[in-house]
Specification:
Length: about 500
């Protein structure tokens, strides 16, 4: 249910990126020949005009004529405000989302988040026809509601998932968002082509509401509340999460040790790594289709399919890397800290190398697609490193910590499109995009070095409420495996 929830979460979140193409009138001033098309055509014939010819072919031979709507008279600035407005609200509810879930349970916080997103999607056509300001308002509210999603699920992670299974849960469930991205763009395109752009909003919104019927019926925030859980499974889960430092439902800390959190070196290191990783991921999410079209010359139809491949690769990488990470921990080959170090290195250094390759490979679009897919495949290792680390160091506040880290890293979502836009404004060239990719390299490498040095796999003392006593020893992966063996014997 959580996996399907994240699928619906991103369907209503990113659908506007393709729907808006069919909502607005075509701006002919933006139609210039992609540099790589010029390079290819110059081998056989000169290109006399800087505008697209209706018979121009993309790298795969398909026509570059895009199907666009002629309804809204919105310029690029207005479209940019609409596309970015979601993050204005999303930024504000990260910390409250985690804390509300810790206090009231993930069932209601995550469920209402998806429900609200579905309602916003259904209201979007009416708002867009009314005025773009009304549409922006709906998108901001949408962001406010969905900002609680990831932090609230992290609170569920701490209550339901034994520590050695958490990377696998994150890799499988959280990274369903990548599958959602890969599916939503082409599916919305098909719906728009057949039924018009409002139908894409109605389709994604309705799916979210249907999901809510099952979620509120089947989901329980704590294992002890579940009416059909076996006594053996309940004992196993509660024993494992208690040993990891998670307090039971009736013993949850009532206050947040903000001073300790904000001065915690492992916490600050994790936030640093998240920001560096989110910078490059933000570039992929917001600028990859632009690069595919403006530089490589893919049509909108091809763009959706080709742009989906790296995100499918990231999901596969997250699942595979998390399984490997779990195996290393449960077989006592590595400690939690060593696992986080190794997999964070994989997640951030390999994508950096791939981006450098993209910067200098020129117009070889097949090599570029392979490098994008390879980089994002190995970036899936964040599921076994930075994303799971809040539950390592403070499981009682994992939702709050994830919300704080995600809030600061979301800043990159604002900055990346602006920086990229300024650097490529009127200069859609390989040289300018090479500079854009180069910026990602120190973001990956430097931020990772900070995390590698200061990361911790131990539960921090401030995780426990004042009335609780700190365990004689901090939790480690070895303890986790021992408790699994004890629970199995019981």
């Amino acid at each position: 249910m959580a996996w399907l929830g994240f699928i619906n979460l991103y369907m209503t979140r990113i659908n506007v990126s393709v729907i808006i193409v069919a909502m607005v009138k075509r701006n002919s001033s933006s139609s210039t020949v992609a540099p790589c098309l010029v390079a290819d055509n110059s081998l056989n014939e000169s290109v006399e005009s800087p505008t697209f010819d209706l018979t121009t072919q993309s790298p795969s031979g398909a026509s570059l004529v895009d199907t666009e709507g002629d309804l809204m008279d919105w310029d690029e600035t207005t479209q940019g405000l609409i596309l970015g407005s979601f993050f204005y609200g999303y930024f504000l509810t990260q910390i409250p989302g985690g804390r509300f879930a810790e206090m009231y349970g993930t069932k209601w916080v995550f469920g209402l988040c998806i429900f609200g997103g579905g309602i916003c999607a259904l209201l979007s056509p009416v708002a867009a026809r009314l005025h773009y300001g009304a549409f922006i308002f709906v998108r901001v509210i949408h962001g406010l509601l969905q900002g609680v999603s990831w932090p609230s699920m992290h609170a569920c992670l701490a209550q339901w998932i034994p520590p050695f299974e958490r990377p696998r849960f994150i890799g499988t469930v959280y990274f369903g968002t990548n599958l959602s991205t890969a599916m939503t763009l082409p599916i919305c395109g098909l719906i728009i082509d057949r039924y018009g752009w409002p139908a894409a909003f109605y389709w994604t919104g309705s799916l979210s509401l249907v999901w809510c019927l099952f979620w509120f019926s089947l989901m329980h925030s704590y294992p002890s509340e579940h009416p059909r859980i076996s006594s053996k499974e309940l004992e196993y889960i509660e024993l494992a999460i208690k040993q990891s430092g998670t307090s039971m439902e009736d013993d949850q800390p009532k206050s947040i040790p903000w001073r300790s959190i904000l001065t915690s070196v492992p916490m600050l290191a994790m936030m640093t790594a998240d920001f560096g990783n989110n910078w490059a991921i933000g570039l992929f999410y917001t600028q990859l289709p632009t690069y595919m079209k403006n530089i490589l010359g893919f049509s909108i139809k091809e763009n959706g399919l080709i742009s989906a491949l790296p995100f499918i690769s990231r999901y596969a990488g997250a699942v595979i890397m998390s399984i490997i990470g779990d195996w290393l921990l449960t077989h006592k080959y590595l400690s939690i800290r060593s696992t986080r170090r190794i997999f964070s290195t994989i997640a951030m250094w390999i994508p950096a190398i791939m981006l450098l390759g993209v910067a200098y490979v020129g117009c070889n679009w097949k090599a570029i697609v392979v490098m994008f897919c390879t980089g994002l495949f190995f970036n899936g290792a964040v599921a076994t490193s930075t994303l799971v680390n809040p539950a390592d160091i403070a499981p009682n506040y994992s939702g709050t910590l994830f919300g704080l880290s995600n809030m600061t890293s979301t800043i990159a979502s604002f900055v990346v499109p602006v920086v990229t836009g300024v650097m490529t404004d009127g200069q859609q060239t390989l040289e300018q995009w090479r500079k854009v990719f180069w910026i990602c390299v120190p973001m990956y490498i430097v931020m990772h070095i900070v995390f590698f040095i200061f990361v911790s796999g131990d539960v921090q003392p401030w995780n426990f409420a004042p009335r609780q006593e700190l365990p004689d020893k901090r939790y480690s992966s070895k303890d986790c495996v021992e408790e699994k063996e004890i629970a199995t014997l019981n």
